[in-house]
């Protein structure tokens, strides 16, 4: 698999999304996002008792799984 080189922003400049926001964006349940975090499919940062996900990590996840119908 070929991975794109992604320039990562420092966490102080990263745009963070909540689990609910990512679930809405992907149109899946919150539990699915939590499962993806637990299995390592989706990187996340623990903030207190909740998680935050970088927008660029969500974009990378979607780009890696994009397939053209045809």
Task: Give descriptors for this structure.
3 helices; 16% strand; 70 residues; three-stranded antiparallel β-sheet; 41% helix; alpha+beta
List the helices and strands and how they pair.
Blueprint: E1 16-18, H1 19-26, H2 30-39, E2 45-47, E3 50-54, H3 55-65
Antiparallel strand pairs: 1-3, 2-3
Would you kindly provide a written description of the structure presented here, covering whatever features stand out?
This protein has three helices and three strands. With 70 residues, it is α+β, with helices and mostly antiparallel strands. 41% of the residues lie in helices and 16% in strands. The chain has one domain (16-65). The chain has a three-stranded antiparallel β-sheet.
Structure summary:
The protein has three helices and three strands. The chain is α+β, with helices and mostly antiparallel strands.
Structural class: alpha+beta
Percent strand equals 15-25%
Shape: globular
DSSP helix fraction: 40-55%
**Spatial extent as radius of gyration:** 13 Å
* Uncertain spans: none
Sheet with the most strands?
3 strands, antiparallel
The tally of strands reads 3
User: How are the strands ordered across the major sheet?
Assistant: 1-3-2
Rounded mean pLDDT score = 86
Q: What number of structural domains do the residues give?
A: 1
DSSP helical segment count = 3
Beginning-to-end CA distance, first to last residue = 21 Å
The helix/strand series, from N terminus to C terminus, equals EHHEEH
């Amino acid at each position: 698999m070929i991975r794109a080189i992604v320039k990562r922003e420092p966490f102080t400049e990263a745009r963070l999304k909540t689990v609910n926001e990512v679930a809405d964006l992907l149109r899946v349940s919150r539990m699915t996002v939590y499962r993806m975090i637990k299995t390592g499919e989706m990187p996340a940062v623990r903030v207190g008792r909740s998680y935050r996900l970088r927008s660029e990590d969500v974009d990378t996840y979607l780009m890696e799984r994009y397939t053209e119908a045809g």
